[in-house]
Design a protein that fits this description.
This protein is an alpha/beta fold. Helices cover 34% and strands 17% of the residues. Helix 3 packs across helix 4. The radius of gyration is 16 Å and the shape is globular.
């Protein structure tokens, strides 16, 4: 599969390398593809192409948004909304405010009855947005191992076919996908980031993951 990862920070780098590991063609999109830091990373990951946001988005059959939530709209504009049309878009973002946590709880830019995932779907009405990979740290995103079993990756989106594509990728990356319904469910999934980060800020514990148990 041809996958574009928009964002050259650590999340984008980890996911791009993970998708390559499982045999996909990957292009990483960034503002400055010729920058020294990203070129140093590419030298260590030669199978990943590094291009502009627009070039990467045009390349991918699946496009992954792996940027800070507060700049997601800007990145979509730089990538060209038309380059997302008809494509599966994996939204890994969270609406984190540019502010410190309060007693270990991250501050968000959204209220309880809205989500960044819905905003992104509204910005890309012709794309198939699926929220996923927003509830775990980058160090455990690709093929994590836990003695208690396979961790759960929650996802949501309006298109069943798109969710099947994303679920298959989630399985490849060593997770158990759990479909939480429409993109409105991003209102419930995005706060999982704050819950995941809470032990980190309180006790410097950053190695955990969520698992949904059913009977």
């Amino acid at each position: 599969m041809k996958i574009a990862v928009l964002g050259s920070g650590i999340v984008g780098q980890v996911l791009a390398a993970g998708f390559v590991k499982h045999g996909h063609q990957v292009t990483l999109g960034t503002r400055t593809p010729g920058g020294a830091e990203i070129q140093k990373w590419r030298a260590q990951n030669p199978a990943v192409q590094v291009e502009t946001f627009a070039q990467a988005a045009a390349f991918g059959d699946v496009v992954v948004l792996a940027v800070l939530g507060r700049i997601a709209g800007t990145v979509i504009e730089l990538a060209g909304p038309g380059n997302f049309a008809g494509k599966v878009v994996i939204d890994t973002t969270n609406p984190l405010a540019d502010a410190p946590p309060v007693n270990g709880v991250l501050q968000y830019t959204t209220g309880p009855n809205e989500s960044l995932g819905e905003q992104i779907q509204a910005l890309l009405p012709n794309a198939l947005v699926v929220k996923a990979f927003n509830s775990v740290g980058n160090a455990r995103m690709v093929n994590p191992h836990y003695d208690q079993g396979t961790p759960t990756m929650f996802l949501c989106g309006d298109d069943g076919g798109a969710k099947k594509v994303v679920s298959d990728l989630i399985l490849q990356l060593g997770w158990e996908p759990f479909d939480c319904g429409s993109i409105v469910s991003a209102r419930a999934l995005e706060p999982l980031c704050a819950l995941w980060c809470l032990p980190g800020f309180l006790r410097n514990q950053w190695t955990h993951a969520f698992k949904l148990l059913t009977h």
